[in-house]
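Record filed here:
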Amino acid sequence: MGIKDDIQAEVAAAFSADLADAVDTFTCTKLIYSGEFDFETQTYPVVGDESYSGRGVLFGSYLKDMVKPTDYQVTDSKAIVLQNEVTGIPQIDDVWTTSKGRFKVVNISQDPTGSIWTCQLRRVG
């Protein structure tokens, strides 16, 4: 096991113990579209769905950050998730269901080591 794996394992253990009060879980289910475009309904046929889940520090703030995303809104939250704690790959426009409501992924970035995603979340619905 490499250093990255060791660190991720230790942080995951901390998520379950010392940091448990700061960690939230989320789920995401999204439709899969395929086939020929239906001009009458202006949609593609739905052929299934896929879902993923994970946990991390989901409701951080951008307020004190010097560099904010270009489409930042004051009510946006910053989610920090370990990639090995998520069962899929988050995408822009995914909607995460959390204990605090539903949030759309507006922006996503990855750290240089490929171990953490930072997601900009915006409340929906």
